[in-house]
């Protein structure tokens, strides 16, 4: 004989199921914008697309064309950041001279500029540091550059903790840019207004 379920029990089950299906679900916690994610944490991954858009938006705000990511320049930047982290040294020549590194990247006879930095925990911090240094800002606003590569490298045993390298280039312009290299050391965050990029406010 098939088991039977009382009408009251059936109604209670339906009510319970209905309650489960209509119960509000808590929204996930808001995620931290990638430009504010710490690069000093193990497993941290730099959002290069966000970096390229950040630099492009800065250039657009200054009447200049945007830049696009370039795999060769990303490799060049990563090699430089890794070399600085490995040697705990903020230097354009720690991984070879800029000229040598350009040749290895395949960007021979091209306009190439480079910014490096150390001690900035997030992409936003690095960008702010570069923007408040005239030589770095000059590189980011080089009129003819069209490509970008950027990288960070952890150095847990270093007082800097994170090293940064950014390379901007125009593969079709062989003319060198005077003062093409600039290095940024940690600096207090400046006060003032902010720049908004993709809905994210970044301190000026």
Can you characterise this structure?
This protein is α/β, with parallel strands linked by helices and 204 residues long. The protein has a single domain, classed as Pathogenesis-related Protein p14a (3-Layer(aba) Sandwich), CATH 3.40.33.10. Helices cover 35% and strands 20% of the residues. It contains six helices and seven strands, in the order H-H-E-H-H-E-H-H-E-E-E-E-E. It has helices spanning 7-22, 48-61, 71-87, 98-105, 123-131, 134-140; strands at 68-69, 111-118, 147-155, 161-170, 181-184, 194-197, 200-203. Strands 1-3-4-2-5 form a five-stranded mixed beta sheet, with helices on both faces. Helix 3 (71-87) packs across helix 4 (98-105). It is globular. The relative contact order is 0.19. Mean pLDDT is 80; it is low at 9-22 and 185-204.
């Amino acid at each position: 004989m098939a088991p039977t379920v009382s009408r009251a029990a059936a109604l209670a089950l339906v009510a319970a199921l209905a309650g489960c299906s209509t119960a509000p679900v808590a929204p996930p916690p808001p995620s931290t914008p990638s430009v504010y994610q710490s690069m000093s944490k193990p497993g941290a991954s730099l959002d290069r697309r966000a970096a390229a858009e950040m630099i492009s938006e800065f250039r657009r705000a200054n009447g200049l064309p945007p830049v696009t990511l370039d795999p060769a320049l990303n490799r060049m930047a990563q090699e430089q950041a890794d070399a600085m982290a490995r040697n705990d040294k903020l230097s354009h020549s720690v991984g070879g001279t800029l000229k040598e590194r350009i040749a290895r990247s395949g960007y021979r006879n091209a306009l190439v500029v480079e910014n490096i930095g150390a001690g900035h925990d997030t992409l936003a911090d690095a960008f702010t540091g570069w923007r408040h240094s005239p030589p770095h800002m000059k590189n980011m606003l080089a009129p003819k550059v069209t490509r970008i590569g950027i990288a960070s490298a952890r150095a847990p045993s270093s007082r800097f903790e994170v090293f940064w390298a950014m390379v901007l280039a125009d593969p079709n312009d062989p003319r060198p840019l005077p003062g093409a290299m600039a290095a940024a050391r940690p600096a207090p965050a400046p006060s003032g207004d902010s720049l908004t990029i993709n809905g994210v406010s970044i301190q000026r």
